[in-house]
Amino acid sequence: MIDSKIPLAERLRPSALNELIGQEHLVGEGSVLRSVITSGSLPSMILWGPPGVGKTTIANIIANEVKSPFFVLSAVSAGVKDVREVIQKATRMARAILFIDEIHRFNKSQQDALLGAVEKGTITLIGATTENPSFEVNSALLSRCQVYVLKSLSEENLLQLVNSACTKDMELSKRKIEIKESQALFNLSGGDARKLLNLLELVVDSTNENKVVITNELVQQRAQQKVAIYDKAGDQHYDIISAFIKSIRGSDPNAAVYYLARMIEGGEDVKFIARRLLILASEDIGNANPTALVIATNSFQAVSVIGYPEAEIILSQCVTYLASSPKSNASYMAIKLAKKLVQETGDLQVPLAIRNAPTKLMKDQGYGEGYKYSHSYEGNFAEQEFLPIEIANTTLYNPGNNARENELRNRLKALWKDKYGY
Length: 422
Hints:
With 422 residues, the protein is an alpha/beta fold. 50% of the residues lie in helices and 8% in strands. The strands form two sheets. Strands 2-3-4-1-5 form a five-stranded parallel beta sheet, with helices on both faces. A two-stranded parallel ribbon has the order 6-7.
């Protein structure tokens, strides 16, 4: 018998693949993860996706399906010692699985402690993360794991969860529950299945009547929160971030900080916002104000350490600074043009004068011959050809029309005369 004191989300946690709602691309019939599980040849893996979409549930289902010893660690509280203890136990077992929740919170030394055991197959690692593993998981560990991306649950999935809870849960099924409106449930839970079910339980338990009619007003009243007009899983998310970026690019700090507030109120990941500011600082401001990238980098580091709610102050400072800065996409356009040129012209020969010449044979072949060491000349500059001869004189960086880049343009023009058309 299931203890009713256990939260609803835990009481309803699926134990088999066929019970799981959502993630059909991974666990549906003929899908990649289902095939791996049923074949028994289970690789170490990283499950990457938003909160409450089934990462922990899938890990538990895998352990049930393959009938393996199952160890669980939380990166919030576990250290290297805990990892080594599990590995030591796993050496005496066959096909032991180690599930690490929030693996992105493990530092380098903690992740490194897993490497040997994963590589030897002592443990099969299943890591869960809400953060992009390319940024948060060591490349050495990442290369030993398959990455499976979990999608946000659709409203259809969420409604299916609610209806299933009302009929299958022993405690809820005793009540007559009618889902008249569901949007407040969805918005307040932010697409997180765990929050959704526990919010449903809160609303039902706080109502004395045997019959419970779920409406948006009732949910908001019981949850004592306002529904944030922001959908992290749908079009609204992309509309808001688009408006946010375009407001900063358009030098409107008022609109920019408004859309920042929309994202904060909607529960957007602080690192997601900070990463977008990092990209924008280089793409849209660049050399018009190089300090912008410094501010954005420091802001990213600061909010990563501090988190909400204080992180909103740092984000606001960064956003208003970037929005108020002069703009230039010249460096962004330069790399786009350069990549296009490389794709069109292939592997052109580097001029002999600027090739590396570490051996006598290379020197005899003319490598490095005629190279002018810039610091030996007046103004630390000596005109010479650096581009391959086939594309000599090609202008890729065209400084923007702003005070700082005009200075750069004038300097380049003075150095190169009319070579690059500055």
